[in-house]
Each structure stands twice: as C-alpha cells, then as structure tokens.
Design goal:
The protein contains ten helices and ten strands. It is of the alpha/beta class. Helix 3 packs parallel to helix 5 and helix 5 (151-163) runs parallel beside helix 6. It binds adenosine-5'-triphosphate and magnesium ion.
C-alpha cells in the first residue's frame, strides 16, 4: 500500500545548521494498517509526513503509494489521495464558510466536479448523515460558520472532510494535542470509528504512549530520523508504557525527551 525505501532528508546541508531529519527510513504499510507513531522531539515524525504529503522532496529514496511512484509528485496532486490533519484546529478549514460549504468544497474537489454549482439536496443529506455520526449535534448547525466552532468540533469536522471520500492514506499529526483531555478522547474515538468503517490506511503521530498502544494495529518509534522500533501482533498487545520507555532507552541510548509525551496521562 505504502512503500517507503531508503528515504533521506537533510536540512541546511553543508552549513552549521545541517540537520539529518530522515536517515534512511524504510517502511512498508499494508492496506488497512493503522500505524501509531511516537518518538522524541525532533525525531523526524512530522518530516516523514511532510515527505509523504509532498511539502518538500526527499534527497534520496522512493515513496510508492498503491503501486504508484509519488516521490516527485506535486503536493496538490498527492492531496487528492492523502488526507492530512494537524495539531492546530484552525488549519484545514475555511473559518468564514459554513460547515456545509466546507464539506461541499471538499466533496466537489474529491469528485473532480466543477466548483460553484451549489450543494445538491442529495449531498446535503449525505453531509447531515455523516455529521450525525460524530454525535456532536453538528447536523443541526450546518449553516454555522466553521470559525464559531470549538477546537474539538473543528477537528471532528476536518476529519470528516478528509474522509468524506475515503483517501488512500490518512496522516494525523498529533491532531488531538491541542484539545482538552475529554474532547481529545472524543475526537480519538471518532477517528477510530471513521478509520474502521472506511478501512482507511492510517498513520497517526501521538504523544500519548497509551493511545499509541491502544489504537491501531502497529506502533513505530522514531529517533534521530530513524525508525528504532516497529511492533505489531502479540509483541504489541503485551507491551506496556514502561516497556516502551525501556525500549526507547535501549535503542536510542538516551532517555525519552518528549516533554508532552512524558506529561501525558
Ligand atoms: N523545514 C525545515 N527546515 C529546517 N529544519 C527542519 C525543517 N523541518 C524540520 N526541521 C528539523 O528536522 C528535525 C525533525 O523535525 P520534525 O518536525 O520532523 O520532528 P518531530 O518528530 O515532528 O518533533 P515534535 O515531536 O517536536 O513535533 C528537527 O531538528 C527540526 O528542527
Ligand atoms: Mg512534529
């Protein structure tokens, strides 16, 4: 499904600020895999997503998505197949447009329809149905402006927008980190439901080590631009958070220095 081979990225090469952010990463995801990603600050987690999403190109290596080589594909072209959510709930939606308009825009884009023909009754019904599944009462607020919603509500709608037409790959970069714990839980549950229902291949960066073991079917740990741990199956189901911390220490020869991660409940 997703096949990453020998991926390398160095920022500011040959300067004092040189930073090897991706150090020969190899990763192979099966269709329907839900991979959680943890790691220290600056480990290269977001860089990996930026390379997959096409924010910038890799120095070396190859990225295949569903058999297609996307290594040099333009970002907007990849966006048709790759959904992406960020930590900041303000990213990804148009605040001055209504919930309905935001959803319609996404739907039309994914369906390659011409913009400006308005929202049909059938589409409105679909949006209402999908919003109702979020269980946040937003199906009755379709004419509300996105900017008026709370952070959690916005993240839930952004998630819906990214998956209205199921993407080949969904990238979630700490998308609940800016939310209060109860809302974060709710958005995580919604994430789980949507991903399961549509069997979307998903990668989720999280700073919550317990969530990294509870959600999905596979966990990878990154440090200094490398994948230092990749667990699934029985080894993963038996793993505990203290085990993870111990493994991090063993594989990286240092203590975990992700402050958000250590402070998480
Ligand atoms: N556009 C860029 N230009 C220069 N350096 C960058 C750029 N993007 C990332 N880096 C550097 O590359 C390294 C990896 O950064 P990255 O954002 O991928 O870390 P991360 O694992 O997502 O960390 P965090 O948990 O703090 O979000 C860091 O040292 C960072 O400063
Ligand atoms: Mg990051």
């Amino acid at each position: 499904m997703l096949k990453i081979t020998n991926l390398k990225k160095t920022f500011n090469p040959n300067t004092v600020n040189q930073k090897i952010a991706m150090d020969n990463v190899n990763l192979h995801l099966e269709k329907g895999d839900f991979v959680t990603i943890i790691g220290s600050n600056g480990a290269g987690k977001s860089t990996l997503f930026n390379l997959i999403g096409g924010c910038f190109l890799s120095d070396e290596g190859q990225i295949l998505l569903d058999g297609k080589d996307i290594t040099f594909m333009k970002e907007h072209k990849r966006a048709a197949h790759i959904g992406r959510l960020f930590q900041d709930p303000l990213k990804g939606t148009a605040p001055s447009m209504t919930i309905e308009e935001n959803l319609a825009l996404c739907y039309m884009r994914s369906n390659k329809k011409i913009l400006g023909i308005g929202v049909s009754k059938k589409e409105k019904e679909l949006f209402r149905e999908r919003l109702a599944q979020l269980d946040l009462g937003l199906e009755d607020r379709m004419k509300s402006k996105m900017g008026l919603l709370s952070g959690g509500q916005r993240q839930a709608v952004t998630l819906l927008m990214s998956t209205l037409v199921a993407p080949k790959l969904l990238l979630l970069d700490e998308h609940t980190a800016a939310l209060d714990p109860a809302t974060a839980d709710k958005v995580l549950n919604i994430t789980k439901e949507i991903v399961q229902e549509h069997k979307i291949t998903t990668m989720m960066i999280t700073h919550n080590m317990q969530s990294s073991l509870d959600l999905g079917n596979r966990t990878i740990m990154m440090d200094s631009g490398r994948v230092i741990l990749d667990i699934k199956g029985k080894a993963r189901s038996q793993m505990t958070v203290p085990d993870l911390l111990e493994l991090f220490k063993k594989e990286s020869n240092k203590e975990l220095d992700n402050d958000r991660m250590l402070l998480a409940k």
